[in-house]
Amino acid sequence: MYQGKKSSLFIPLITITLLTLSGVACKNSDKKANSSSDNQGPDFEYTHNLSFTNVQDSVIAKIKVAIADTPEKRDAGLMNVTRLDENDGMLFVFQKPQPLSFWMANTPLPLDIIFIDKDHKIVRIYHSTTPYSKNELSSGSPAQYVVEVNGGYCINHDITEGMMAKF
């Protein structure tokens, strides 16, 4: 008789233990999911000011940018960044004007990609690019700088090709 009571107590005890453990596992996976969703990806210092100006030379929008001025920084760009503040971006700096191509591989955010020539004139804008796309987005003419901002930024701030970027 005792044997029976032991197994009848044992089954509810195991069930409670398993439910408790699965609840702890769910909480831990929730914490991991929340921390990864809070994770913005690589840390950048948005320390430099960049302004977009219209043909009358009036400032129409300002952002803070992180600078990508080495091959390693340019190659990484905003890859794996999951959140970008509205007025933050990245400025890619190249040694000389040249035809440039960018793509969105490993980039989870839609971005506006702005190609800028040596005189700081915007020569090409790609609006709300497709995340993770491997399609090449070409400058179309020589560019020396590229700015990446959140997708939709250029439309929301009326930034168009032919305007200037000051940095």
Q: What does it look like?
A:
This protein has 167 residues and is an alpha+beta fold. It folds into two domains: 38 residues; 119 residues, Jelly Rolls (Sandwich). It is built from three helices and nine strands, in the order αββαββββββαβ. Strand 1 and strand 2 form a beta hairpin. The chain is globular and about 40 Å long.
Summarize the structure.
With 167 residues, the protein is of the alpha+beta class. It has 3 helices and 9 strands, in the order αββαββββββαβ. The longest helix has 37 residues, at 2-38.
List the helices and strands and how they pair.
Blueprint: H1 2-38, E1 48-53, E2 59-68, H2 71-76, E3 88-98, E4 101-102, E5 111-116, E6 122-126, E7 137-138, E8 143-150, H3 153-156, E9 164-166
Defining key terms:
9 strands; seven-stranded mixed β-sheet; 3 helices; alpha+beta; two-stranded antiparallel sheet; 167 residues; 32% strand; Jelly Rolls; single chain; disordered N terminus
Instruction: Specify the structural class.
Output: alpha+beta
The total count of helices amounts to 3
**Quick check: average pLDDT?**
83
What are the secondary-structure elements, in order, as H or E? HEEHEEEEEEHE
Q: CATH top level of the largest domain? A: Mainly Beta
Q: Which residues sit in consecutive blocks of at least 5 with pLDDT less than 50?
A: 1-39
Shape: globular
Number of strands: 9
Distance between termini? 85 Å
CATH architecture of the largest domain: Sandwich
Evaluate the radius of gyration. 25 Å
> What summary fits the major beta sheet?
7 strands, mixed
The CATH topology of the largest domain = Jelly Rolls
Order of strands, main sheet, comes to: 6-5-8-3-2-1-9
Count of discrete domains:
2
Helix content: 25-40%
CATH homologous superfamily placement of the largest domain: Protein of unknown function DUF192
